[in-house]
Design a protein that fits this description.
Length: 341
Amino acid sequence: MPCTYNSGRTRTFSQDTLTPMADSSPAPTGPATAAGGTALRRAVTEEMLGIVGAPFALAGRLVEEAGFDAVYLSGAAFSAGTLGVPDIGLFTRDQLVEQTRILARAVTIPVVVDADTGFGGPRDVEETVRRLEAAGAAAIQLEDQPADKRCGHLAGKRVVETTEMCDRLAAAAAGRSDPGTVIVGRSDARGVHGIDDCIRRLEAYRGAGADWLFPEALASRDEFRRVGDALEGTPLLANMTEFGVSPLVSIPDLAELGFSAVLYPVTLMRLAMKAMEAGLAIIASEGTQESLLDLMQSREELYDLLGYDPRHPDAHLAGPAAARATRHAARHASSHEEKHA
């Protein structure tokens, strides 16, 4: 399917502009330290990637410490967890950019951002990509629903024409400052027109500029295999969200089905909310949280995750990587002293 969008601009790249820098807005930990899309592009050729949604910045640190490849800023988790609203396109671009900036500055692994439908027409999509890149996004996801979107696993979705989505993706590719930034093209067509239309659309999206493809709400392992076979050679992203229409498939099985990365967009938020619900019930019934202490993150564990050593508070001002290096060095020194005591 041909793409009709033309940005009207010619881009040149120098060594100084290959990696976008965040703007100078204040942030808790200083300059953005998230790795770029180039790291994602390289990693996806070497192994199956696990990408976990972080409902807040501290959770992003936990994802990184657990050894996952990238952190995901989910539109659903951001809507519900940060803003307390459903995932129907209610947050603004400014809100998403700021959350991207906060998350990217909290971790040193790539951040994949769900940009919904891009916040308008092609020119708006260009601006969205530019601003998300500057905030620290390594990959930016766009979907083929209209602006009044719905969760991808609910009935009643609609999709725009293929050419309109191709224009979005071409605008996204034109809008990026770093050619390494990954553009993810998502199709919700499986739940609207069926698997055949979904595959046709993804093929068109690949031609329009999508680097990775994301077939949303596939209904069976066979459908995952069909997509994997039809789009072999292009990195495919599988959504393993809970309580949706897709079966929960393991990482090794998804790799065998032809997928390159797996997404857990709302898992941590669901776990956290259920734990908080249980904790509140116990406090209400027992009048104290004492029986919950063994289930809590301790102060030392929190500080370790933050990379914060109370003896060296200034180290934290240099950013998360420097703070964590200081913390790890202190931990190593302490272990060395204990060993030779």
